[in-house]
Design a protein that fits this description.
- The structure is a single chain.
- The chain is α/β, with parallel strands linked by helices.
- The protein has a single domain, classed as Rossmann fold, CATH 3.40.50.720.
- The chain contains 6 helices and 7 strands; from the N terminus they run βαβαβαβαβαβαβ.
- A 7-stranded parallel β-sheet has the order 3-2-1-4-5-6-7, sandwiched between helices.
- Helix 1 crosses helix 6 and helix 4 packs parallel to helix 5.
- The chain is globular and about 50 Å long.
- About 45% of the residues are buried.
């Protein structure tokens, strides 16, 4: 199969949906992996109605079936040119309220699930492939009332650096885009604008590759 393909992990409304539409507009096939049946189905139906090839899986990315689900999508597409990772957990707890089990559960989704996704698609991630991650200003300027989110975003950015160092000799690069603003329906931090920033980060010149790209709107 020669058509390029993107796999979006954490698919649904917002940035992940906008990114799927953006690649679809360029003629790419799209894989959608998410845990909300209705949200994934609506996005898949929209893309399919536009003539886009879509493959879907419904799964909890912290569960035991996650790797198999991501792998099935990749295998049905036949190749992966871009893997995009979007999940994170928002839990309104400050550090005195946040329990260790809750922190670890959130990190399992916002950081650990990236490992699951990358390891699952690696056999089908082509040379020249890209791994992109939706980052956040919470990595550097966390809100204390959502303490686990800052830990997740700092951790996933750190993991991206390691993934890039591991895969770059195989012609595969990884990048996180740090969104330095609050997402909104319109304006510079709308999902469509952030999606454009993610696509631009994936298309960086290899000689000047940065594993973290800030998006300031």
């Amino acid at each position: 199969m020669s058509t390029r393909a993107v796999v979006v992990v954490g698919a649904g409304p917002g940035v992940s949906g906008s990114l799927a539409r953006r690649y679809a507009a360029d003629g790419w096939s799209v894989g959608l992996v998410g845990r909300n049946v209705e949200q994934v189905a609506l996005l898949a139906e929209e893309l399919g109605a536009a003539g886009v090839r879509v493959e879907t899986e419904i799964v909890d990315m912290t569960g035991p079936e996650a790797a198999d689900a991501v792998r099935r999508v990749a295998e049905r597409l036949g190749r992966v040119d871009v893997l995009h990772f979007n999940p994170s957990a928002f839990r309104e707890r400050d550090p005195l309220e946040l329990s260790v089990p809750d922190l670890l559960a959130d990190v399992a989704l916002g950081v650990g699930a990236l490992l699951t996704a990358v390891q699952a698609v690696r056999p089908l991630l082509v040379e020249g492939g890209r791994i992109t991650v939706t980052g956040s200003m919470a990595a550097d300027r966390p809100w204390h009332r959502a303490a686990s989110l800052g830990v997740q975003k700092a951790g996933v950015r750190n993991l991206v650096h390691s993934l890039d160092a591991t895969l770059r000799d195989d012609g595969i690069r990884a990048v996180s885009v740090t969104v330095n603003g609050t997402l909104g329906d319109d304006g510079p931090f709308s999902p469509d604008r952030v999606a454009e920033a993610l696509v631009a980060a994936a298309r960086q010149d290899e000689g000047d590759w940065r594993t973290e790209v800030p998006y300031d709107g």
